[in-house]
Structures are given as C-alpha cells and as structure tokens.
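Milestone M4 deliverable, item 7.
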Amino acid sequence: MHTASEKMFATTSSSMENLAPVVAVGEQFCVPHVVDLTITGKAFRDHLTVTDTSGDVVFTVETVVSLFSHKLLLLDAAGHTLLTIKAKGITWKVYRGESKDEKDLLFKVKSKIHLININMELDVTMPINNNFNDGCDYKMKAKGLSSSPGNIYIGESNSIIAQSIRANKLFGCKIQARVNPNVDYAFIVALIVISEDYYSGS
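Output delivered:
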C-alpha cells in the first residue's frame, strides 16, 4: 500500500536522481534514504512546525520582527537555534546558529524578479573560501500560488534534489516535502521556509 506522500509525489519522483551528497547545514541531516516531511503553519506564518512521517517534531520555525526587517529562526526539536535567516528585500542570508558574523554565513538566497510575479524562482549561492560568486549553486522553482510542486535543482541543471507541494488554507498553510537520499534535509527545510517568506510578502 502506498503512503499519502508516495501518491503525492508519484508523478515526479522518478526524475529524482541518486546524486553526490549535498551538505549545507550538517552531515547529521544527510541520511541514505528518502525523507518525507510535513510543514504546517498558522495564519501569518509566524510559527511553523516540521514533522516526520511518525508525527514527531523535527524542527520548528519562529519569526522575529523588528522595525525595518525580520529574521527567521530554524530550531531543532530541543529548541536550539540551528539557523538564523535574515531577510532584506529580495535577499535572504542564512547563518549558522544565532550568529550574525559573516564567517558563519552558510548561503545566500535571492529571488528573481518577474514582470508578472506569478512564478517563484529562488537562486541559492554557496560560499567558496568564504567568498560568494555570481553563479547559482541551487535553484528552487514553483509555478503560481497554487499547490503546484516546487522543485529544488542543482544549479541550472534538471537534477532534482527535493520537492515540495504547498497548499494554502484559510487559517494557515501545509507543505509536504520529499528530500532525496543523502541530501541535507535541514538545508531543504530552510529553502522551503524562505519560499514561504517569499509567498507571505514579508
């Protein structure tokens, strides 16, 4: 019998390939099997909860708002801050832990501006020797504001490392995510959180 997640991703999972390990946050978040996660949030998405297929909490996300900006905190199940995501305009910077130091900057995300802002496209850049180039190491794409699958690719290739299906609800949101084997699922959750921030127009 197929699980709900297997049915949900049945039409697209065949394009997910066995690729080299993808590590951005930590090797402890890379496992040799597919990871299915559910991300739920209430209205305004000020708090998100990430659970596994057993219903156990894996991560939570908190939003901290200041006068001119806001940041998102990705916490582990014990409540420790894994990542701090600082949002500014169409750019998000992701730091390790609660750090604000540039040496702890793990990756940057920037949204592409379309004349008609229907489709989402986020470019992810990783540092090389603490320097960022102008290229794109990973990309997240989704069509429209519906529950169309949002795919995360390696660079400009067609190699998919994770997928998500998003459903808006009257009093919140629900996202189903499937992460490829040996892909850092904390990294993928961070990208999905950023996509939610993008959609919320924060």
